[in-house]
Amino acid sequence: MFLTTIDKESCKGCYLCIPVCPKRLIKLGSEINKRGYHPAIITDTGECTGCRACFRMCPDLAIEIAKVV
Ligand code: SF4
Ligand code: SF4
Fold first, then answer.
1. Ligand 1 centroid to 67 CA: how many Å?
2. Total number of domains in the chain
3. What is the CATH number of the domain that holds 36?
4. How many Å lie between the centroid of ligand 1 and the Cα of residue 13?
5. Lower CB density within 10 Å: C or N end of the chain?
């Protein structure tokens, strides 16, 4: 099982991560961060396969993927 998180303050709302998730777990969030962007959010981290597609795509290293035992 993987715990995938997006650092809302590091996210610049480019949404490059959204279409690359094969499980369609990443969506546009409604919250606004300190820089005025709507950060992307992970909707169901329990479904994450840890494929790292989102991690590789993010230009701002805002996504962290941790394996949970
Ligand atoms: S790719 Fe990174 S910066 Fe762009 S929306 Fe996704 S988490 Fe945010
Ligand atoms: S690691 Fe893969 S399955 Fe998990 S959120 Fe990122 S793209 Fe989606």
1. 20
2. 1
3. 3.30.70.20
4. 6
5. C
